[in-house]
UniProtKB/TrEMBL annotation:
Native species: Polyodon spathula
Enzyme nomenclature, EC number: 4.1.1.90
Keyword flag Lyase: yes
Gene name in the database record: Ggcx
Protein name: Vitamin K-dependent gamma-carboxylase
Membrane topology: Multi-pass membrane protein
Length: 669
């Protein structure tokens, strides 16, 4: 047991021995290097994902905007003060990196970080939550005992032991991130390959598609591989025998994620956390291999760590050892460290499954997105969003552009944000002579390639609707999971259509109707019932048509229609249409491309008209082009050239582009 887990059964046989175990003296080297890397990554993250580079865009004084704080009393400070908040956070991250006034730096970082975090729920995600947790943990740890300015200023802190619980908390936190993410993926949508089906199209998976089909690559590599890695990564990193293999796969996984998703510093942070699972003295062994002339710039290799009051030292076994270390009596500090470890780990295991408490935040998926570690399990696509307002005095009805008065689109999926948005819109509409405004939302969403369905009841005024964080949302529509098997039929239907024909699958509840407009660009649009029964009203004609399962009808272009669900159960239907304008454009672009190829290879016998000369002169000659088709052709050619240039770029070119991009991002401030 000691060889596998680093402890004996007797070490946990009593609370006192358990406290001694968690406060066992441990080399500070690995913790110090992680502190430096985490602080450095946060220094880079703050201007980017935290928003320092666009503070004026988000918090401009006097800007009319709807905000979504966790607590409604939280409001942004004036712009100048918000800059100060970000500067304090940036200085705190820099202090953590350098280990300079470490405890104060941690407090500066986490106080401002969590304020910014709670100020905007629309920016929440799992890795932003993780950054705040790590910053909170580091505040209580002795991570400035190695490779820090505090160590240079204070000899007692320099190269001093740290208690084992410092490593235990961080390692367990990362284990939870992996393992709970794996448990969340034990979901039929993930195992069936519906959550991230589109990822198989990415060029990173091209090597796998040499062996598997695209569908099998999605199921086996994207979904199956992600599930296995998340479930096993924490265990494999913990044990010595499996750690080298785990390091390879985990590093490959996070490097791929850095290219697949726009997740800022998350991939690099997880790469840094992997080093915590190695032996705590790995930096000493690693940096000892560097030339001696670099020793001043690198972390120290010698001497061995010195005695620290934060640790509990056992009774020495010999008189020689007694001269080096004196036994330590358990103090309140040691007991509090052990208690913090136990309570924190228990809370972190509990939080991802605490949705039965915060039921008001549950939607088609459970909980506030951010602390559940259900990363990438649910994909969403929105087909239709309509906001209707009604004057409570005159009864006048109007419509709002979805997203008006806000910078975010995430309110569409969360009942708590929708309630805040409705209250904000009601307040703003009073400035436009709308008395006692009522706000109605009709939001359609597809979860993991299911039918497009309503997420909230469109008949309720959300301004007056009841909502509580601790009670189920009464105006949330249920996810139609009974219709999930239809997803296999969707692919069969799509395979029967040609490349110009599009299809949208809809499911609706009894007693509700969908009002839709068929654009004149959409020729040959038909509606076919897959299940249930519909009554379709053509508004301009004033006629109703009843269609049952298996029947279809043609819809006139340029007109509104309403599809009423009249069956006792949910109705399922699909729109099949052809975008005639887009099809004609594609045909014209294809002709231009073929003409370009014939002229270039000399097979074109007719002289090229002057107005088409730009297709030979290059994509940078479209300044004076007036023909819209020719302009579209040149834009597409330019885009193709840019993509090819990026793919063929050398490592130096990519690094230069990356550096310039970050430079201009920082220079804006």
């Amino acid at each position: 047991m000691k060889r596998l887990f680093g402890l004996e059964l007797s070490d946990v046989s009593s609370w006192q021995k358990f406290v001694c175990l968690l406060n066992r003296p441990t080399d500070p080297a690995s913790l110090g290097v992680f502190r430096f890397l985490f602080g450095m990554l946060m220094v880079v993250d703050i201007p980017q994902e935290r928003g320092l580079s666009y503070v004026d865009y988000k918090y401009l004084d006097g800007m009319v905007v709807c905000r979504f704080p966790l607590f409604n009393f939280l409001q942004p400070l004036p712009l100048d003060w918000m800059y100060l908040v970000y500067v304090i956070m940036l200085l705190g991250a820099l202090g953590i990196m350098l280990g300079c006034f470490y405890r104060l730096a941690c407090l500066m970082f986490i106080s401002t970080y969590w304020y910014i975090f709670f100020l905007d729920k629309t920016a929440w995600n799992n890795h932003s939550y993780l950054y705040g947790l790590i910053g909170f943990q580091l505040t209580f740890m002795d991570a400035n005992r190695y490779w820090s300015i505090d160590g240079l200023r204070n000899a007692k802190k320099r190269n001093a032991h740290v208690p084992l619980w410092n490593y235990t908390v961080l390692r367990t936190q990362i284990f939870i991130v992996y393992f709970i993410a794996g448990l969340k993926k034990l979901d039929f949508d993930w195992i069936g390959g519906y959550s991230m089906h589109y990822l198989a199209n990415h060029w990173l998976f091209d090597p796998f598609k040499l062996v598997f089909s695209e569908e099998m690559t999605s199921v086996l590599v994207v979904h199956g591989g992600g599930l296995v890695l998340d479930l096993t990564a924490g265990y494999l990193l913990f044990f010595d025998a499996t750690r080298p293999v785990a390091m390879v796969f985990v590093s490959y996984f996070h490097c791929m994620n850095s290219q697949l998703f726009s997740i800022g510093m998350f991939s690099y942070t997880m790469l840094a956390t992997s080093l915590l699972f190695c032996y705590p003295d790995w930096p000493r062994r690693f940096f000892s291999k560097f030339p001696a002339c670099l020793s001043r710039a690198l972390p120290m290799v010698m001497p061995a760590p010195q005695h620290s009051p934060s640790c509990v030292y056992p009774e020495p076994e010999s008189s020689e050892a007694a001269n080096l270390t004196k036994p330590t009596k358990l103090s309140r500090r040691h007991r509090l460290g052990a208690l913090f470890t136990v309570l924190y780990i228990a809370e972190q295991f509990f939080m991802p499954y605490s949705h039965f408490i915060t039921q008001g935040y549950n939607n088609l998926t459970n909980g506030l997105y951010g602390y559940s570690w259900d990363m990438m399990v649910h994909s969403r696509s929105h087909q239709h969003v309509k906001i209707t307002y009604r004057d409570g005095v005159t009864g006048d009805i109007g419509y709002l552009n979805p997203g008006v008065f806000t910078h975010s689109r995430r309110w569409k999926d969360h009942g708590d944000m929708l309630k805040q948005y409705a209250s904000c819109l009601s307040h703003q509409l009073k400035n436009y002579n709308i008395s006692e405004p009522e706000i109605y939302f009709d939001i359609w969403v597809s979860i993991n390639e299911r039918f497009q369905q309503r997420i909230f009841d469109p008949r309720l005024d959300i301004v007056k609707a009841d909502w509580s964080p601790f009670r189920p949302n009464p105006w949330l529509m249920p996810l139609l999971v009974d219709l999930s098997p239809w997803r296999t039929k969707f692919q069969e239907i799509e395979d029967t259509l040609d490349n110009q024909t599009e299809v949208v699958f809809i499911a609706d509840f009894p007693g509700l109707h969908l009002e839709n407009f068929v654009s004149e660009d959409l020729g040959n649009t038909s509606l076919q019932v897959l299940q249930g029964e519909l009554s379709v009203e053509i508004v301009e004609e004033g006629k109703n048509y009843t269609i049952k399962e298996g029947e279809k009808m043609q819809l006139p272009a340029g007109e509104y229609h309403k599809a009423y669900t009249v069956s006792p159960g949910p109705s399922c239907f699909m729109y099949i249409y052809v975008n005639t304008t887009e099809t004609a454009l594609e045909q014209n672009l294809t002709r231009l491309y073929e003409l370009q190829e014939r002229v270039r290879n000399g097979t074109e016998t007719e002289p090229l008209p002057p107005e088409l000369q730009p297709i030979l002169n290059g994509t940078g000659t479209d300044v004076n082009v007036t023909d819209p088709v020719l302009k579209a052709f040149l834009r597409r050619q330019r885009k193709i050239e840019e993509i090819q240039k990026r793919r063929n770029a050398t490592i130096v070119d990519r690094f230069t582009r990356f550096t310039i991009k970050k430079y201009y991002l920082l220079r804006r401030r």
